[in-house]
Please model this.
Amino acid sequence: MKWSPQDAMKAYLHTLQLFKIQYGKDCKLGPIELIQPQSMEFLSALAAGNQAKLMVQVLSNEGVNPLTMALAVAAKHCGGRFVCFLDQEQSIEDCKSQLSCYDLEDAVEFMHGNPCEIIDLNRRGSIVEETELVLVKCLEGREELNV
Model:
């Protein structure tokens, strides 16, 4: 795996700018405006800098979240594939529309289904062997996910 500082920097700054727009959060140091970085920018830079070709995120019922946006930015900058598993109640079209105002709807491939079953079906296939970054976030009280 080859590190690309240019892709890492572009993804970091792009993600930082998106969160500035989305949350309207700026820090001011005198007359200079600063944006307070969060962990999402670092994850985006890590994925893009490592030129991850396949990233997978497993979501519970909250749909698109800041990590989804960060990984979509990384996929866009490094040309990687980003697959996001949604809860059955989540609409793929709603999730895409949430990303469309940031021009990221084409950077994410949303899927319904149990990711454990899909990964088991593809144990020797591309989704397991080529995945370079996996994020799993489940809400408390939900079934445990063992990947």
In short: Strands lie at 27-29, 32-34, 54-59, 81-86, 109-112, 133-137. The longest strand covers residues 54-59. The chain has a mean pLDDT of 77.
